[in-house]
Design the sequence.
């Protein structure tokens, strides 16, 4: 069996033995793309996707070279790469197993713990192709949603410690995501550990200052200010998280949209376009803005 691990550092195994990466990095990119997109892929579309900045003829030539390098690297497993004149693909399970595909299958089946167990890091760690960045964002959002369901489930069952650990895993997956930090602050306060909750906030503020040169959002600051003003709470007495699954991994984008809406409400018109590949959360982000605007008195058509 050919095993393709793309969660974290890319590792390829054949019958349990790791396959050395080819010298041509694009050959590994090609394998990763085929692994994440089961089924026949048009050679023309692949060439354009993997070599977007060159002429079509050059891109196709580069694709042929990458296919040759990939076959050579796979050795005995080269038969799992299916090629004809117009298409390329990988064989299906059980001949080929891909951890990210298995992750999605577990999530679809409601097996969140099995899905979380597969996560070893960000998707295709170290790869910087445009298509990788989009796929990475989409996977991160699915992972964060999975971890939050686990955290919320354990919290509802009274297991605060486990809920907190799942929330810390969200922060590990998205270190700059303010939603996960707000959840952790809330859950630590609910467990009676206000000091730890404030440490989480200070760590976030320093990270945002150092890496993005910004301060935490107003929503995060108000949460912490309220925490500082309230008397010490008994465990589980702090305000609970809303029942609706919160927006995950889009704090910066949401703050930008809210800023535009606020300016519009003050009489300064503006237009915002939300774009991106399917599955990265455009609709969810738009709905969150509508919720906030409606709460401020906007009429939503």
Sequence:
């Amino acid at each position: 069996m050919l095993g393709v691990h793309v969660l974290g550092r890319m590792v390829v195994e054949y019958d349990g033995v790791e396959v050395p990466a080819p010298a041509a990095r694009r050959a590994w990119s090609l394998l990763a793309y085929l692994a994440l997109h089961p089924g026949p892929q048009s050679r023309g579309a692949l060439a354009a996707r993997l070599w977007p900045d060159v002429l079509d003829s050059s891109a196709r030539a580069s694709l042929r070279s990458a296919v040759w390098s990939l076959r050579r690297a796979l050795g005995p497993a080269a038969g799992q790469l299916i090629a004809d004149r117009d298409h390329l693909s990988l064989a299906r399970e059980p001949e080929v197993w891909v951890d990210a595909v298995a992750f999605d299958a577990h999530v679809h089946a409601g097996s969140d713990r099995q899905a979380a167990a597969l996560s070893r890091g960000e998707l295709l760690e170290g790869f910087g192709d445009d298509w990788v960045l989009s796929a990475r964002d989409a996977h991160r959002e699915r992972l964060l949603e999975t971890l939050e369901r686990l955290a919320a489930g354990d919290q509802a069952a009274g297991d605060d410690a486990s809920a907190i650990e799942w929330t810390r895993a969200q922060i590990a997956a998205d270190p700059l995501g303010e939603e996960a930090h707000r959840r952790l602050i809330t859950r630590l306060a609910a467990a009676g550990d206000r000091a730890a909750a404030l440490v989480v906030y200070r760590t976030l503020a320093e990270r945002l200052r150092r890496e993005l040169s910004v301060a935490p959002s107003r929503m995060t600051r108000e949460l912490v200010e309220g925490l500082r003003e309230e008397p010490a709470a008994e465990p589980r007495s702090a305000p609970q998280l809303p029942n609706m699954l919160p927006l995950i991994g889009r704090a910066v984008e949401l703050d930008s949209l809210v800023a535009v809406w606020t300016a519009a409400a003050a009489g300064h018109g503006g237009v915002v376009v939300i774009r991106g590949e399917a599955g990265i959360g455009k609709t969810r982000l738009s709905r969150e803005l509508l919720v906030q605007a409606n709460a401020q008195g906007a009429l939503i058509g």
